[in-house]
From TrEMBL:
Protein name: Thymidylate kinase
Keyword Metal-binding recorded: no
Positions of the Thymidylate kinase-like domain: 10-196
Purpose: Phosphorylation of dTMP to form dTDP in both de novo and salvage pathways of dTTP synthesis.
Keywords: ATP-binding, Kinase, Nucleotide biosynthesis, Nucleotide-binding, Transferase
Gene encoding the protein: tmk
C-alpha cells in the first residue's frame, strides 16, 4: 500500500518572497528524493485558475462573494489536484492554503472567523497541511517589493490598513497552530530567507517523514 504523501503550505502576504521560498522547499525535497508537485491558491486546477482570474481582476466584488469564490476554487483544487496526489504518495507544496482565508477574508475583510471555520470544516475537512511555512513581512516592505514585480491586481490595490490586518490574522493563526505553522522573518535578504526556509524543513524532516 502506498504511503500517503505529505502536505506543505507556504503563507505570506504580497511581496513576502513566496516564489523564492517555494524554490527553496523544492530544492530540499529534491535532496530528500521526494516525489512532489508545486501548486497554488487560488488556482492549482483548471477551473480554480478561472476563478482566480475573477478574484484578482473583477471590479466591485462583494466580500462574501470573494470568500465563497476562494472556497469554490479550493474545493476544485482539493478534489482534483491535492487529494489525488496525496493518495498516490506524492507530496504537495502549495503557495497558500486555508490560512490565507482567515488572514485575508477574516481579518482583511472582517468576515466572522466562525464563518470561515464552517467552510474549512466543510470543504477542507481532514486535508490539512502537515507543515506550514509562514513568511512574515512588514506590509510596507512587502508592497514595495510587489510593486517592482508587476502591475497591481485587485488585492494589491488595497490600503496599508488592510495588509496590516492580514498580518494580524496570520499571527493569530500562528498562535492557534504553533506545532504546524513555523514563522520565517521575510524582512531579511533573499539568501537568508532561503536558508531559514530550508532550515525549517530540515528541522521537521523526521516529523514529515514519519
Amino acid at each position: 500500500m502506498t504511503d500517503k504523501g505529505r502536505f506543505i503550505s507556504l503563507e505570506g502576504s504580497e511581496g513576502a518572497g513566496k516564489s523564492t521560498a517555494m524554490n527553496a522547499i523544492a530544492s530540499v525535497l529534491d535532496d530528500w528524493g521526494i516525489d512532489f508537485i508545486k501548486t497554488r491558491e487560488p488556482g492549482g486546477e483548471a477551473n480554480a485558475e478561472r476563478i482566480r482570474e475573477l478574484l484578482l481582476h473583477s471590479e466591485h466584488l462583494d466580500d462574501n462573494t470573494e470568500l465563497l469564490l476562494m472556497f469554490a476554487a479550493r474545493n476544485e483544487h482539493l478534489v482534483k489536484t491535492i487529494r489525488p496526489a496525496l493518495e498516490k504518495g506524492i507530496w504537495v507544496v502549495s503557495d497558500r492554503f486555508v490560512d490565507a482565508s482567515f488572514a485575508y477574508q477574516g481579518f482583511g475583510r472582517n468576515i466572522a472567523w466562525s464563518t470561515i471555520e464552517y467552510l474549512e470544516d466543510w470543504v477542507v475537512a481532514d486535508t490539512r497541511p502537515d507543515l506550514t511555512v509562514y513568511l512574515d513581512v512588514d506590509p510596507l516592505t512587502g508592497l514595495k517589493r510587489a510593486a517592482r514585480r508587476s502591475a497591481k491586481d485587485r488585492i494589491e490595490k488595497e490600503s496599508i490598513h488592510f495588509f496590516n490586518n492580514i498580518r494580524k490574522g496570520y499571527w493569530q493563526r500562528l498562535e492557534q497552530n504553533p506545532q504546524r505553522i513555523k514563522r520565517v522573518d521575510a524582512n531579511q535578504d533573499i539568501q537568508q530567507v532561503t536558508t531559514d526556509v530550508m532550515n525549517v524543513l530540515n528541522t521537521y524532516r523526521e516529523q514529515l517523514q514519519s
